[in-house]
Amino acid sequence: MKSYNKAKERNLKTLEQYVPIVDRVHGSSHPEFHDVRRLFEEINLKVKKTGADTPELDTEFKQLREITDNYSVPDDVCESYEAVYNMLAELDEAYYS
After folding, report:
1. How far are the Cα atoms of 6, 32, 91 from residue 10, in angstroms, in the given order?
2. How many CB atoms lie within 10 A of CB 66?
3. pLDDT tens across 14-40, in order?
4. C-alpha R_g of the chain
5. What is the H or E stretch that residue 63 is in?
């Protein structure tokens, strides 16, 4: 879980900033991002509640992979959207390594 903790430290604060903005900018043309935001908020809440412990995130990551088609970035989005998917994918991968 060492890599998960590093990924968490590296990405959570940026995701907290990016996810609401990307949702506001792209949510109308990519309604699936509303679900991405909801799942990220659930993940973030669980992470904060557990502190140094690793929360149970299997369900959230499974749903994220389904919603995002394994974090496939749409062609018509900005770099921030792509960054969100890349950071979520990194967290997901680190969680299982």
Report:
1. 6, 25, 9
2. 11
3. 999 999 999 999 999 999 999 999 999
4. 13
5. helix 58-67
